[in-house]
Write a structure and sequence with these properties.
With 160 residues, the protein is an alpha+beta fold. Helix content is 28%, strand content 27%. A hairpin with a 2-residue loop joins β6 and β7. The longest helix has 14 residues.
């Protein structure tokens, strides 16, 4: 069994319902959700003239290897209506693999750990809730340490 850490998020339509649907699709695709963070409200990153995002970190067990898992998650995004039209643009759903086991993977369409995680408070904050002591296999720091060092100024607020 492989353990992956995912970040799911979106800023279109009913965001809470979309994240719930994504969790359902992940489970039906063979991903057993072991942990889920709270939902976090975040200002958009990279392109600011759009609605705020809602994000959640998941710890998921899967029997798939990382490349197959990526294809499964991309298929879920497509089934949910995701269209990749604009970099950092608005989206119904986004599912990113942050970590996969303790793997370091560099393929044309897949980089694990996620190459920007240390720079994105919106990913680190929910991940720190469920895996504070997880060690980044390239940087050698825990998620808690990466969050403490993160210079991303965007506010991330736990949704009540």
């Amino acid at each position: 069994m492989n353990i992956s850490y995912l970040l799911i998020g979106g800023n279109q339509q009913d965001r809470v319902a979309r994240l719930a649907s994504a969790r359902g699709f992940i489970a039906s695709a063979g991903g057993k959700i072991l942990q889920a963070s709270a939902l976090y409200e975040t200002a958009p990153w990279g392109k600011t003239d759009q609605p705020d995002f809602l994000n959640q970190a998941l710890r998921v067990a899967t029997e798939q290897d990382a490349p197959a898992w990526l294809l499964t998650l991309l298929d879920i995004e497509q089934k949910m209506g995701r269209r990749r039209e604009e970099k950092y643009g608005p989206r119904i759903i986004d599912i990113d693999i942050l970590f996969f086991n303790n793997s370091i993977i560099r393929l044309p369409r897949l980089t694990i750990p996620h190459p920007e995680i240390q720079n994105r408070r919106f990913a680190l904050t929910p991940l720190e809730e469920i895996a504070p002591d997880l060690i980044h296999p390239v940087l050698g720091l825990t998620i808690r340490e990466l969050l403490a060092e993160c210079t991303d100024p965007l506010a991330v607020k736990k949704r009540s």
